[in-house]
């Protein structure tokens, strides 16, 4: 393994741990209009996602829950990335993230993955993919349920 890959892996681990120790958008929303509870029974991770959807946009988002560093960091990164986006853009980002986790080709040219890229190494550990995708699945479920109301 080249020193570049080792340094990149180390940087990614630091980004993941930073989000775990200093979560962004953690908490609840008083004026949310979508609340989704999801868990990963395999490992015990659980999340409650709060979305405030207005005029087709994610006006605000928070999460609460408990779990491993990967699931909680992923939730923190996701909330940072989707806040202020059109719902369709957030769902497109979720699809790109899912493809990245499954080690599929993905189109990131018009999306800024930011810190989310730090999670791409998780795809090498199939047992941890559900941890990384938990918050994203909650987003998809929440938007879907809102659309059906």
UniProtKB/TrEMBL annotation:
This is SUF system NifU family Fe-S cluster assembly protein. It holds the Pfam family NifU_N. One of its GO terms (biological process) is iron-sulfur cluster assembly. CDD domains: IscU_like. NCBIfam families: SUF_scaf_2 (TIGR01994). Signal peptide: none annotated. It comes from the Bacteria. It comes from Bacillus solimangrovi. Belongs to the NifU family. Residues 12-131 form the NIF system FeS cluster assembly NifU N-terminal domain. GO terms for molecular function: iron ion binding; iron-sulfur cluster binding. InterPro entries: NIF_FeS_clus_asmbl_NifU_N.
């Amino acid at each position: 393994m080249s020193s570049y890959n080792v340094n990149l892996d180390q940087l990614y681990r630091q980004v993941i741990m930073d989000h775990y120790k200093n979560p962004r958008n953690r908490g609840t929303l008083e004026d949310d209009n979508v609340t989704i509870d999801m868990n990963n029974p395999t490992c015990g991770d659980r999340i409650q996602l709060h979305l405030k959807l207005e005029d087709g946009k994610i006006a605000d988002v928070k999460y609460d829950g408990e779990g491993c560093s990967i699931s909680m960091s992923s939730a923190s990164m996701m909330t940072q990335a989707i806040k202020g986006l059109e719902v369709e853009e957030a769902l497109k980002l979720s699809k790109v993230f899912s493809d990245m986790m499954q080690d599929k080709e993905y189109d990131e040219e018009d999306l800024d993955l930011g810190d989310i890229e730090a999670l791409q190494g998780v795809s090498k550990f199939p047992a941890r993919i559900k941890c990384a995708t938990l918050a994203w699945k909650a987003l998809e479920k929440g938007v879907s349920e809102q659309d059906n109301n």
